[in-house]
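ok so heres the complex, two chains, lmk if somethin looks off
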Amino acid sequence: MMSDTFSKIDIITSPSKFEELKEALNAIGISGMTVSNVLGCGVQKGHKENYRGLSIDINLLPKLKIEIIVCDVPVDLVVEAAKKVLHTGKMGDGKIFIYDVKNIIRISNGAEGRDSLRYDE
Amino acid sequence: MKKLTKVSLITLLTVLFISIFSIVVFAEGAGDPTGIRAGAVDQITSQIVGSPTQDEIITQIAKNKLAVNYVWVLMTGMLIFFFQCGFAMVETGFCRSKNALHTMAMNFMVFIVGAIGYFLVGFAIQFGGVGGWASLGSGVATLNHEVAIAGWGIFGTKGFALASGGTYDVGVYALFFFQMVFMDTTCTIPTGSMAERVKFSVFVVNSFFVSMIFYPLFGNWMWGGGWLSQMGVKLGLGHGAVDFAGSAVVHSMGGMMALAGAIVIGPRIGKFRKDGTAVAFPGHDIPMAIIGTIILFFCWFAFNAGSTTNATDLRLAVVATNTMIAGAVGGFTSMMYMWVRYGKPDPSMMCNGALAGLVAITAPCAFVNGISSFIIGVISGILVCISVRVVEDKFKIDDPVGAISVHCVNGVWGVIAVGLFADGTYGDGLNGVKDGVIGLFYGGGFSQLIAQLICVAVLIVWGFGLSYGFYKLLDKTMGLRVSAKAEIEGLDIPEMGMLAYPDFALVPESVETSTYVKEGK
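and the predicted structre for the whole thing:
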């Protein structure tokens, strides 16, 4: 049996395009993901606001973090799909991080590896 | 399926038709849909039903007059109780979420403790010698012993536990009910300036102190027949110190206590940098604070108009309207001030501005006209915005909710405003002085203004001085502040044992938005 390679893909982007992204991912065969609200900063600078007359630097901006694990679906396909939805060419589009994953276990039936990602049993 | 639907529809329509038919056909002679037959002579309480004697008619009229006063006093009292909800929401909204439960719990607790203190002791101290309350009937005359020095009243001694000295009377109970909720507002004001670092237990003690000693003594001097109200009769200073619904008695006293407490307890950790500049700690739920402000605004109509304690005193319409005007204008002025000066209409200051207008109009509301209310509101809206920055930047006092700027500064402004704007149309007989209360701008000269300024001096010396001493003592004995560790973690777990929002992942300290100070856009 071919050795399974799993990859984790983190997409950090502005919350406004999430529904579109989800649909695009569903279209290429990805239905499972973990989504969290995060605060972040990077190249995109914050801005100043006033609270009761005191100036505040808003450096940390609200973002969405979408975590996906893939095995059968090629990583490049996911990256292309995400870029297609999220790209505007401006700062604030976000970033994609790709990691190796050692193993995946489904808790309900103990399936490991590629089987734990399959949903058509 | 279709047949069943058809059958049901026909059945329904038939039943409907029969019902309508019966209502129309069998309706005659049963009820009185316009009320035109209600309220006939059989309603007059009389020995022989339908034939009242003249005395019985007179008694009924008197009872009705009294009854409408009782309804007025009790209903407005109930609405003023709801102030607690307003304050709780404003303060909690302005705090950080890690302290939300503590702040809200404090604001409810002050009521339940204050009720006990005021019932057992405070009410008697404040009103035990008031001698009577015309709009509530003759029974209030049992509150007839005032301890005085050379004829100047200091405190009362009838009515402890609403029983001592034969005071178990409907009028006394009604007066207590109404006055208690005013006292409770003073209890809750200092929780705002000391929030996010004060111990819960401190406010338990504080509420007993306020309800039993701090509030009732000054309250006696202003409203219970005591010396501040006697300055008119005894010294010719206007009508003595005048405060219709409590800019001095309630808000300034609470505000002075808030000021003293904030000074003694010190600023929150991280509030001021080493160079002395202030750091913003944004409130976690400003929408909650806005709801709280709306609730307070709503209940303020009761707070001010209810203070006529007399439903046949139609001046209450002017009082309620003046309240509305000053509050709205105060909020608008603050909103515009922030918009012009800082670029956006800061909603938290809009709230503080409305409350400032309401606090400022609370003393003069019965004695001024709508235009004066407008002007008073404009000034209070500006005062509160300036004060928030001055308190923080110049005096380095940390006031998380603006309690000092709203209640202390604008309470004093309200007291002074009486001496300036009172137009002489109302107040004949108040504190035993003939003719309406009249201020400087309406040809009344300085006498009322001087009485008001004396009141302000007492607020500073007694209100601030006593609370400062009280907090210093409390700090030495039980300590006002929680430990630094508890303060940074958030007071909800260390003080209350539970979180306000256990389901939400709280943002850890290290991720707080960074801030630095510079005034301006």
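quick notes: The first helix of chain B runs from residue 2 to 25. thats all i got rn
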